[in-house]
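Moderator note: this is an archived Q&A kept for reference. The question asked for a predicted structure of one protein chain; the sequence and the answer are reproduced below.
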Amino acid sequence: MANRAYSRANAALFPKARHMPVRPRLILGSGSPRRLELLAQLGVAPDDIRPPDIDEDPQPGEIPRRYCQRIAEQKAQAVRAAPDEIVLCADTTVSLGRRILGKPAGKAEAADFLTRLSGRRHRVITAVAVRRGERLWQRDVVTQVQMKSLSNTELNAYLETGDWQGKAGGYAIQGPAGALIPWINGSFTGVVGLPLAETANLLQAAGYPLYDSGS
């Protein structure tokens, strides 16, 4: 009887505790430290990080935007997750016309990419895919980027930093290459690797309580 009375007293003192929503686990399907840092700007820390292993080679004749959308979706589908866990994946692609500039295999290819981009506008496409169970939410963001005309000194100095490694198009706007980019039209966070406004909307659509302080 005493225990029952104690339970009733607790329920009266803490009525909201009985109705507290359970925050679903968020799985980041990416090993990118940049995406982890961008998520932190939203006040979000994933419960686990599970980078998927998929074939990221473009299909014959595949255009850059469709390629980026496909890779993000395949990443989200490839991550193992419980039915109620939310999986967040993204893919960033640099395109010059219809040509996809992926991650350079070495210093020589990075130099080739940067030489092609020098003095020209190009597009940076980031596609985001959020999955919960069998449901999938997607969005992609296209940003126009202008790279300055690079002198040999600037090109070689940037290559020596090694910052091009693992970066689509051979550069990262948030690093030393920021000095080579005088103009963009679109999403800065999208160029870095995760467009925050669109990602926030997708997470909320999937049921992640992004702004619920009581979650």
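Archived answer notes: The beta strands are 26-28, 48-49, 86-96, 99-101, 121-132, 135-146, 183-185.
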